[in-house]
Specification:
With 78 residues, the chain is an alpha+beta fold. It has one helix at 31-48, and strands at residues 14-20, 50-57, 61-68. The longest helix has 18 residues, at 31-48.
Length: 78
């Protein structure tokens, strides 16, 4: 898999991000785990200046649809 730097994502497009646990192990065991993951997702989106449009946290994997900013302008392309 090719490395992707965060700077490469700032082009005004949408991205589907998916991850899963090692060997399909459970990532989130209870409601508190889901809450912590949701908070980390919100903080990461804010820090990296992307909009999370849709997310799905499942016990063994995550799907997130994000929209990125255009670096040359301050507009958001949604």
């Amino acid at each position: 898999m090719e490395d992707c730097r965060l700077e490469d994502l700032y082009d005004g497009n949408f991205y589907h991000v998916c991850t899963e646990g090692m060997e399909r192990d459970v990532l989130f065991r209870d409601d508190e785990d889901f809450l912590v993951a949701r908070n980390y997702l919100a903080l990461s989106a804010w820090k990296n200046k992307v909009f999370v449009l849709v997310f799905s946290l499942m016990s063994n994997h995550v799907h997130v649809l994000v929209a990125s900013h255009d670096r040359r302008r301050t507009q958001i392309f949604i």
